[in-house]
Write a structure and sequence with these properties.
alpha+beta, 3-stranded antiparallel beta sheet, 11 strands, globular
Length: 308
């Protein structure tokens, strides 16, 4: 059944009301359930319902979501197969908007706001690490932010990896990196399994972006970005944007999180976030860059629930 034809139908008790987005392997609907109320339902795309690898990844993402319980992780309600081949994942409805979209309108964001967001995301990531899961795709497109409550929610375990997974059980071929190039850790570019330190690097990149409105590497092509990530140091935080400066303590924390070698970063992701929070508390007022009025609603909703 085509994705448009699913709207208005009921799958396993979930009435699909609206099509809100789709990724490479799944379609996301706003749905209603008599017990759970409004929620989001992710359905494996029809063309992939006979693809064993796609099914395995979809089910794996759902199972990872059930293993990570934290106030800043979107809650998994149910996983199942509504009928043969029609795999679905129901999760809580996240209010607010994608952090990527919010940041595009408002960045550079105030230092204390960024420190609070990063601390919430880090708590969610640390819960995943405690469950033996490396997220591998931390980016603003995988975080929901509600400006009214100031709450963030981590989304999408679509390409997460179990730290205990052996080579024979991996779903990603060696030599092919996974993640998003703007936020991926240098060590992930080989395609080999990464440690929780890779998530810390991605989180430090998010913090850099929220604080400056730009990224620690600026390249004209993916190939150039790939090379820079492997061979060049990131742009210093205080050189990211004219007229925008931070204390040495804040800069030191961000740049340590962006260290090329995992061993040179903080011992844990939450340690990085706590250090940023402490530096922000002690920091003097930051000079804000003048916003460009020409610069750039849920249009990127595929990022809401990932590629999965």
């Amino acid at each position: 059944m085509a994705r448009e034809q699913l709207v208005g139908t009921t799958l396993a008790g979930y009435t699909l009301r609206d099509l809100i987005g789709e990724g490479g392997t799944s379609t996301v609907f706003r749905a209603e359930h008599p017990q759970y109320g409004v929620c989001a339902v992710k359905v494996l795309r029809e063309k992939l319902r006979d693809d064993k690898t796609a099914i395995a990844r979809f089910v794996r993402e759902a199972k990872y979501g059930t293993r990570v319980t934290h106030p800043n992780v979107v809650r998994t309600i149910e996983i199942g197969e509504a009928r043969p081949g029609l795999h679905f994942l129901a999760i809580e409805w996240a209010s607010g908007e994608l952090l990527e979209r919010y940041a595009k309108r408002h960045a550079p964001l105030p230092l204390n706001d960024v420190a609070d967001m990063i601390l919430q995301i880090a708590g969610a990531v640390q819960a995943a690490h405690a469950a033996g899961i490396v997220h591998r795709d931390l980016k603003p497109d995988n975080v929901m932010y509600d400006p009214e409550t100031r709450r963030v929610l981590l989304l999408d375990f679509g390409i997460a990896a179990d730290t205990d997974t052996g080579a024979e059980d991996r779903l990603t071929r060696a030599g092919f990196f996974v993640g998003t190039l703007l936020y991926v850790a240098p060590e992930a570019l080989s395609g080999e399994m990464v440690t929780p330190a890779a998530d810390q690097y991605s989180l430090a990149t998010i913090a850099y972006y929220l604080l400056t409105g730009t990224h620690p590497f600026v390249a004209k092509s993916p190939r150039e970005m790939f090379t820079q990530l492997l061979t060049q140091p990131p742009i210093a935080l205080n050189a990211a944007k004219p007229g925008l400066t931070f204390s040495a303590a804040v800069s030191d924390v961000i740049m340590k999180g962006l260290a090329k070698q995992p061993a040179a970063r903080f011992a844990t992701t939450i340690g990085f976030a706590e250090a940023l929070s402490a530096a922000a508390t002690a920091a003097p007022t930051t000079r804000r860059a003048v916003a460009n009025p020409a610069a750039g609603v849920f249009a990127k909703v595929k990022g809401l629930f990932g590629k999965g």
